[in-house]
Amino acid sequence: MSMVHSEPAVEPRDASSSDDELAAALEEQLEDEESSFLLARRLQAEEDALLAAELAPAPLRRCSFSFFGRLPAELVARVLTFVPHQSLTSLQRASKAFALLASAEARGRTARRLREALHSGFLSDAAPPAGAAGPSAARAVATPPTDHLAAVAAAIEIALHGVGVRKRSKCRQLLFNLADPNNPRLRARLVAGEIDAEALVRFSAKEMASIELQSQRRVWKRNALQRVVKPDWRVYGFVCDLYRCGSCDGYQTKLHRTIRAGKRAVDEVSTLYATCIACSARWAVDQA
Fold first, then answer.
1. What is the pTM of this model?
2. Cβ-Cβ contacts under 8 Å for 54 (sequence gap 6 or more)
3. How far, in Å, CA of 251 to CA of 85, rounded?
4. Residue-wise pLDDT tens digits, 26-60
């Protein structure tokens, strides 16, 4: 007798319930991915903010200036004495307190350098001449006291503020000419009151220069003009031995006449020149 095994009946699945489960699973997965993406973006933003805060120099500058701002003014002024002179101008833009202290330090340095230049020049004036055992009494008495030099230097520093953008170049001119050993006349006139500080800062470099330097500059100018003269074989004129050359003491010269361009009265502006054949030196001949 054969036995027949019957399989249990499989209940049919509801299609709508399976779709709902799949949709719920997909929605949960999407929510997880979105939360992970948002978390990654937040972490990246925090990391970028930390990196920018480390690389940004502005907060460090504000912190350093705020630190110096809490210090006493005397201590800050002492610290500014170690700052180079070129950096004091940039410090004046930090804050109002720094601007006042840095400006006072810069003006004090300028006045001190002017006083040192004056003192050095008067020391060179009081030095004994070559071959003398000691300085003369007149030179020793002529040296003004240090307080007077400091007052004159302070007046010059105040007058320098009126020259505008040319203050730095004008200060260099003053330092050179006031300390020049060959320029005692300028120092004497300044200390005696013949020239005030306002007039001194308006002087040009030529007006402040010593007599020796002015004559030397004229010689340099004359030599520069002579160097552009054509060689002797290209200079037109007739040869004569009437004039002596001041450079080589030669007498072989060529005479030629030049006419100033742009003038109608040719006879009035023509000039007679003599050119040395040996050294090509040229000079104007006096026709009187």
1. 0.50
2. none
3. 58
4. 788 878 788 888 888 888 888 888 877 777 654 44
